[in-house]
Specification:
The protein is an alpha/beta fold. Helix content is 43%, strand content 16%. Pyridoxal-5'-phosphate binds next to helix 4 and helix 5.
Length: 374
């Protein structure tokens, strides 16, 4: 499997979570789209692109059990989240409910909306390690109030890999009249996804993380009744012409990553998505349990609340260290790539498992951390 990727040899790549890694076959497909475009840009943009883009959207929509007309490509999950957050109208006193694990870029977008409108960001505190799903749901339920206009929910929390019970939380939110925006940056590919069944209003996802698409490929799904009030972050010719018309063209760009989504889905399907998910989950959990045993520290939560991402607390003697320096040192000295995140004053190493990983990759991280600890 490793040979199907162009990852540099000799490096243990345990951070699929941040940016993904694209297989050779999918990169080649994107290259073919680029060559087709450059052979006659005018013909491509005017005659080939519109239907090719919708065909790719149709493939992706089917994969997440959605209707093609409810799904549009965006650059990445951040862009999808911004499209919704910055389109909605808030008034002074309205509350936007998120959690302490919300991805920081999205928190910043919420803060900007609050600054502009007088709305207030309310954060439900998620305390690690969590012991069950209720520890993810109850803090949000407690903070849901009469003023909550919007709940912003990570499907899979970035620093930990914890899977939030989106359907249950969406049910509570909607019963109280709040709308729900889900940040599914990590979910497509890592979870079996039926987006409309979640009962949310908007769902932003990435294809370049766990769906094997080239970088710069995300999507925004909107339930039909929630499409009219949403516009892309960049307004262009399609303004007022409907949801997909507005998002499909936001100015000239390289469309190859969006168009290669079909090839990414082919790559995934050939491996059998449910086998890949089961394999990655087992690999991640086994590795995390071995790291936790060697370091004498806990996992962020039970294995059942995870897909292929999981966080383990670093040993006590490394807790005062700078996370960025640790990451840089692991890369330079030990050729191990891992995310280390400070959460509530403690440092956690987040590992990922993807089809190119083997158990020895995690041993490299384990031993490097033990060496630094001593
Ligand atoms: C929960 C969450 N949201 C958003 C993002 C940002 O993804 P992108 O840079 O592709 O927009 C990430 C990236 O790790 C994430 O974990």
């Amino acid at each position: 499997m490793r040979r199907r990727f162009i990852l540099e040899p000799g490096t243990a790549f345990l951070n699929h979570g941040s940016f993904g890694a694209t297989p050779r076959a999918v990169l080649a497909a994107a290259d073919r789209w680029r060559s087709r475009m450059e052979a006659n840009p005018d013909r491509f943009m005017r005659q080939v692109l519109p239907s090719a883009l919708r065909a790719a959207a149709t493939r992706l929509a089917r994969f997440v059990h959605a209707r093609e007309q409810d799904l549009a490509f965006v650059e990445n999950a951040t862009a999808g989240m911004n499209a919704v957050l910055r389109s909605l109208e808030f008034r002074r006193g309205d509350e936007i409910l998120a959690t302490t694990l919300t991805y920081n870029a999205v928190r910043q977008a919420i803060r900007e909306v609050c600054r502009r409108t007088g709305a207030k960001l309310v954060e439900a505190a998620i305390v690690l390690p969590v012991h069950d799903e209720a520890a993810l749901l109850a803090p949000l339920e407690r903070k849901l109030g009469k003023r909550t206009r919007l709940v912003v929910l990570d499907h899979i929390a970035s620093p930990t890999g914890l899977i939030f019970p989106v359907r249950r939380i969406a049910g509570l939110a909607r019963a109280r009249g709040a709308k729900v925006l889900v940040d599914g940056a990590h979910a497509p590919g890592q979870l079996a996804l039926d987006v409309p069944a979640l009962g949310v209003d908007w769902y932003a996802g990435n294809c370049h993380k766990w769906l094997f698409a080239p970088k710069g490929c995300g999507f925004l799904w909107a339930r039909r009744s929630a499409q009219g009030e949403i516009h892309p972050p960049v307004i262009s010719h399609g303004y007022g012409a409907g949801y997909t018309a507005e998002f499909d063209w936001t100015g000239t760009r390289d469309f190859s990553s969006w168009l290669a989504t079909s090839d990414a889905l082919d790559f995934f399907r050939r491996m059998n998505p449910s086998s890949v998910r089961a394999h990655n989950h087992r690999l991640a959990v086994d590795a995390a349990e071995r790291l936790a045993a060697a370091w004498g520290t806990p996992l962020d939560g039970p294995p059942g609340l995870h897909g292929s991402l999981i966080a383990v607390r670093l040993p006590q003697t490394l807790q005062h260290r700078d996370a960025r320096q640790l990451v840089a040192r692991l890369l330079a000295r030990d050729r191990a790539v891992v995310a280390i995140n400070p959460i509530d004053g403690a440092l956690w190493a987040r590992i990922s498992a993807q089809v190119y990983n083997v158990p020895g990759d995690y041993d490299r991280l384990r031993d490097a951390i033990l060496k630094m600890r001593d």
